[in-house]
Amino acid sequence: MAKKLWDGRFSESTDKLVEAFTSSIDVDKRLYAYDVEGSIAHCRVLARAAVISQREAKVLVRGLEKIKKDIKQGHFEFSDSLEDIHMHIETRLAQVVGKTAEKLHTARSRNDQVALDIRMFLRDETRNIIRRLIELRQVILELAKRNIDTILPGYTHMQRAQPVLLSHHFMAYFEMLSRDAQRFKDSLKRIDVMPLGSAALAGTPYPIDRNYSAKLLGFSKVSENSIDAVSDRDFVIEFLSAASLCMVHLSRLSEELILWSSSEFGFIELPDAFATGSSIMPQKKNPDVPELVRGKSGKVFGNLMALLTLMKSLPLAYNRDMQEDKQPLFEAADILNSCLQIYTKMLPRLIIKKHAMYQATLSGYLNATDLADYLVSRGMSFRQAHSCAGRIVEYANSKGKEIHELSLKELQVHTTLIQDDIYTALTPEEVVNRRTSAGGTARKNVISAMAKARKKLSRERTAFLRAKEAVSMR
Ligand code: ARG
Asked: Mind listing the pLDDT tens digit for each residue in 339-390?
């Protein structure tokens, strides 16, 4: 069994159950590359401060690089007795480079080390998600472009309300996902803080240059307070909160895809490659992908709650409870990534049933507001017009007809303000194209909204690539 790095003051070995209970290696081994990178930077900082010699730093760095390679290639043994990834790497380093390894942990604690690792992980993960959000919005934009002439009922209270362009509907998701991207980008500012040098909680007496660590690791700031630096997980909670909202959006989209693909709606069909069958009912084609996106959102929200609850009554500074932050974080990041990825692949292949959507706009009195608006344009007050249109709807309903199916004579019984231009005024196309208020569903508005969105995406893509270049240059 490996000797523990902290066993100096202990007179009996750790109970096996305790080892298994306190170990986090199964979860945090995922951080190994960040842990090694952080340790390499730390060696350089120690050497620069003459805490260790340049030669010793070289030996340590070479050993750390070998370990990173070994772990990557699966040539590394993990064991509960070594608790976590930090102790695994340090213990292994002693086997690889000998006694010099004992100097690595000078001026450092696992408390600032783990804070650094999570920040580095989350910095990459957040950038990944920002990239995925660009890709998904690109797909949505193309879908909107292809459907600029598709009209479907817009709903309120889940009742047919007014016709809208399908493009307009999709562009609503573009807006939601843009806010998500914004939130992730903003949270990067709080992730981008380098905690190393805070040590256990109080800082360190060694003359290390924390700004040099930050520079080596590509951080633009160093933490201001050592106690805060080791006890802060706000940035994890922020990530989970941004992830939760993004999952709310994906889940709402999922709900619509599920409803729309039902026989009751028949608005879309999912591509076969993204649907599954039933083991008993041969006719079934189930929308499992959207159902699972909707279902997985619950886990992400739960993980946000887990982190809030985990942190809410912890006294300063580090407490072992905080080890429980990683599993919910990793799970949420994986879920969000996979959902964004699968929708980016699936959405371009949606089969849109344009005719069914259009047909649905023709029944349910979706043009009643426009009848009222028509009367307003002929001089009636809106309240009066609303009530008159309501009476016409009631009459039409009693005849089992739509407003546009009534004869001019039948309409004129209610008011002589109605002329035969009413029929063109009430077509779905007219109803849509009349909605020219900024942000409305008129075709020309949606076209300019899409042009604006395209520019925005291309700006975001350029900024993303520039940031990526900056990362690879360090
Ligand atoms: N595995 C620990 C965690 O993830 C690392 C920090 C442990 N620190 C300590 N003092 N036991 O939180």
From this structure: 999 999 999 999 999 999 999 999 999 999 999 999 999 999 999 999 999 9
Q: What contacts 276, CB < 8 A, 6 or more positions away?
A: 285, 286, 288
Topology match between the domains 14-106 and 368-426: no
- Among candidate residues 13, 278, 381, 448, the one labeled active-site is 278
Both tokens of 84, joined, read: 């976590």
Asked if 231 is an active-site residue, the reply is no
Q: Is 323 in the pocket of ligand 1 (CB under 6 A)?
A: yes
Closest CA to 313 of 322, 300, 302: 322
- 224-261 per-position pLDDT tens digit: 999 999 999 999 999 999 999 999 999 999 999 999 99
Return the residue whose CA atom lies nearest to atom 11 of ligand 1. Answer: 320
CATH 1.20.200.10 fits 117-193+225-359, yes or no: yes
CATH 1.10.530.10 for domain 14-106, yes or no, is no
Amino acid at 284: K
For ligand 1, say whether the CB of 111 is within 6 Å of any of its atoms. Answer: yes
The per-residue DSSP string of 378-389 comes to TT--HHHHHHHH
Q: Which helix (H) or strand (E) holds 38?
A: helix 32-48
Domains of the chain: which residue ranges?
Answer: 14-106, 117-193+225-359, 368-426
Indicate the pTM of the whole model.
Answer: 0.95
Distance of CA 122 from the midpoint of ligand 1 (Å): 18
Q: Residues 88, 5: contact at Cβ < 8 Å?
A: no
Name the CATH superfamily housing domain 368-426.
Fumarase/aspartase (C-terminal domain) (1.10.40.30)
448 catalytic residue (yes or no): no
Pocket test for ligand 1, best of 82, 110, 113 (most atoms within 8 A of CB): 110
Helical ranges in 161-233 per DSSP H: 166-191, 210-217, 226-231
How far apart CA 377 and CA 472 sit, in angstroms, is: 62
